[in-house]
Each structure stands twice: as C-alpha cells, then as structure tokens.
Amino acid sequence: xxxxxxxxxxxxxxxxxxxxxxxxxxxxxxxxxxxxxxxxxxxxxxxxxxxxxxxxxxxxxxxxxxxxxxxxxxxxxxxxxxxxxxxxxxxxxxxxxxxxxxxxxxxxxxxxxxxxxxxxxxxxxxxxxxxxxxxxxxxxxxxxxxxxxxxxxxxxxxxxx
Length: 161
Prior knowledge:
Elements: E1 11-12, E2 18-20, H1 30-35, H2 52-60, H3 81-86, H4 94-107, H5 114-133, H6 143-159
Antiparallel strand pairs: 1-2
Organism: Acrobeloides nanus
Protein name: Transposase
C-alpha cells in the first residue's frame, strides 16, 4: 500500500508508518506510541526562550532596591501619558465630556430637529473658533502636574546620561 492511500480506520504518522492497528483494542495500540521517538521542530532563530530564572530576573529588574530608584521595566516613551504630560495636556477626557454637556445645555431641546441642531452647531463652532483665536493666558499648573513633568524630564536626563 502506498502512503497516499489510507484504508478506513488506519492511523499513520508523518513517515507513513502505521501507528494504530484497528484490529487491536482502542487502548492496546497506544503503548507502542510511547516507544517511538518524537520529532522536535526547532524554533526559529528570532524566538528567544527564557528559562525560569531569566524570566524572573527580567520581571524584577528595574524595581526599587533598598530605596534606590533604578531604571523601570518599560520605557516612559511607550506609555500613553508620556507626550500628554510633557505638553501639559489633560490626561482624561473630562474636558470633552464638559463640552458635550455644555452643547447639550445650549441646545436646550431634548430632541431638536435637524435644522435646529445644525444652527446651534454652527453657532457653537463660531464661538469655539473665537475662543481659540484669543491669546493664551498664563497656565497655572497644580503641584502634581509640576511633579509629573519633573519626573519625566529627570527620566530623560537619566536615560540619555
């Protein structure tokens, strides 16, 4: 019999050798499977396998040791708040929620018609454009925001040292 043709109930391995004989019971033929060598497929070169100790060391590096700060496990540049903190932008969407609430109040109608909605939208857009064109006033930062900006800048100095 060629390896391309299989009879019903016949199980073969990758070399085409019969693995289980259907005439044997369902469990009797399994013992022979454990005696055969197993083919191990090598991992690609770019896959790095870490042992338990290496993995544990990678996880716990960068933590505080005896009160000293060490480099963090992940760079601040990959955090979403990195650029936001440097440019003093809000870290939440509360401003957008407030704008949506203000627009809802300015329309003053629970279910406005399309024309009413568009008229109010155009008026609101004109007011927002006017407010944007005004010169920016001095921004007062909270102590927490100043602290976060200092932490990010000190990390940059530490990383580029």
